[in-house]
Batch of 2 targets.
Target 1
Amino acid sequence: MMKKKPLVIAHRGACGYLPEHTLEGKALAFAMGPDFVELDAILTRDDRAIVFHDHYLDAMTDVAEKFPDRKRNDGWHYAVDFSLSEVKSLRLHERINPDTGTAVYPGRFPASSQVRFEIPTLEEEIELIQGLNTSMGRQVGIYLEPKGPAFHRKEGKCIEDAVINIFREFGYTGRDSRCYIQSFLPESIRYMKDTLKSDLTMVQLIGDSTWKETPGVDYYRMLTPEGLDQVAGYADLIGPWMNQIVRDAGTGREPEYTNLVELAHKRKLDVHPYTFRVDALPSYVKSFDDLLGIFFLKMGVDGIFTDFPDRASGFLKRSGLR
Ligand code: CA
């Protein structure tokens, strides 16, 4: 049997080079030969799905300057409090730490740049990818995470309904449509499958229970054979944190190689770990190629989420894997 070729998933576009989730970044990512482009979606006040990672706008836009009175008591400007036209009026920039104003990844696209980037709607992004697939004769897929299902419910909204409906409009309905849905929340995946009757490929993302991002989800259990049995009952593959496959034990120490990939493969779950960044290497490697070698060749993962899709495609080509 021929081994499947590992997938390159362009995480938030080519965000190693251009601000995340911009149409410009997605076009650049597309040109780098990924198999999938990765998207996050959230809702605006007027229920439009936009492609954006955080619930608040502060780390990526000039919202604090333009709408100083629209922050909540916790100090953040939430996208869900703004209409699509207000969101569109914002200037998007490279990710910064909103407390300090400094770039999170200083070697990336300058955060101070005045280039006019904006937040796209989900429809715009799908049209861009479908358009490029047509004009370039490609079949790049969409790998989307409906962000914060519980947060949206608290706001009286349903992010899953919105994205599944949009995908249906654009012809993404079944297993063969190269559209994967990812979620940290098992109930959200079940809701899309059972209630919305979505037949799209479903990916269970696995976080670390200390991150406290999805209260009530026990990721440590999810990583056990019993936990994975359960996941295999509703999801098609898993997206674990890379540290759950190769545990970084700190500088100068041997990392710990786990059996997660093997356990998952036994249950016919493919494994797509996140997030591979040239400018944030684990301590056990000296280069990005070393890291890719460990994951693709030694651990046998089926794909990776990376901010640097060109580097991953290049490595796979040189290794004869594509
Ligand atoms: Ca994501």
Target 2
Amino acid sequence: MHAWPASEVPALPGKGRDLRIHDTSTDGLVTLAPGPVARIYVCGITPYDATHMGHAATYNAFDLVQRVWLDTKRQVHYVQNVTDVDDPLLERAVRDGIDWEGLAERETALFREDMTALRMLPPQHYIGAVEAIPGIVPLVERLRDTGAAYELDGDIYFSVEADPHFGSVSNLDAAAMRLLSAERGGDPDRPGKKNPLDPMLWMAAREGEPSWDGGSLGQGRPGWHIECVAIALDHLGMGFDVQGGGSDLAFPHHEMGASHAQTLTGDFPMAKAYVHAGMVALDGEKMSKSKGNLVFVSQLRRDGVDPAAIRLALLAHHYRADWEWTDQVLADAVARLGRWRAAVSRPDGPSAEALVEEIREALANDLDAPAALAAVDRWAARQDTDGGTDIGAPGVVSRAVDSLLGVAL
Ligand code: 5CA
Ligand code: ZN
């Protein structure tokens, strides 16, 4: 699949700091020191509805990761998937009486437009589940042939017991895992499974549903976790720097994915850090397509909201926090954007050298975007009160805010 156009990332004077970020698997901060090319996999959308503020907040977090790396003069190798065939997508297509492929194409196109408007850096490889099937089949065959997977009425399940490290991403106990598995796409109550948590790798063709040739697996379609693993291993290999997504993906998705990859390769760990963004809520409940309590990026854009203000609204919350979208959040962001634009449109201001370092420091410290915004606020306020005569300063601030925060002033 094609991704979306990249906005330019201006180079800044000096060099950024190495990123210290929270890793779910150790529940602590790790300092990542990638090689010249940092490797990141971020789980993409299931395209059955438009991009909402929760998605945007999660992609914003991983956009910041890349901006910090680019500022350390590294290249970034970024891979993202599109879950363009899965139960929720097929169910929505049936509900609305439309073709599932058309639905996926339409919503993926809208996602690209939203990401472009928000100046999110595009992945170098943007891969759909359907186009990944030829790579998925041999992996499932290998798991089955080595005894790490088994068949149940034509479906193939992964045996979580095959991975000695199973549980090391989320560190949950079996009861919590079972609950989350039932909530998030698993089938712990299906009779005949070796372990209730075992996830499906290949689903045999169902009446009225799309299916593909799976070689010795038979006609069917891939499970969710193996989709991301096949794409990540193909384009990044093992031991990549960051596996990213919202906190609802820690279990089962990232736990199972890591187990698939570790069992396939005999290598551990799949990723150096498992990074999870908090959940954005609306009216007291997690924003989700299944509940329908949504604020869409595209709707705000249609209403004339500047995408830079949307981005500032996201940045005003720490990526790990759970937070609530309200009209006030947006109004505050619009006001801040106005103050910043007025400040950088003046010919001079207080020196910006210290400010650039403050933004760098804040982001390197577990992506503390709110602290970075506060530093820019202080610079703008100082320009109001004390003036300042540094001719280049507004330009430096504008470039730093663009480069490190993805906000075009
Ligand atoms: N296609 C899979 C990943 S392989 C999937 O989870 N798709 S999704 O469309 O449901 O979500 C896309 C990303 O947005 C995931 O990282 C998910 O954790 C995140 N996300 C979904 N809802 C929210 C929310 N309310 N707040 C923050 N992030 C969210
Ligand atoms: Zn995924």
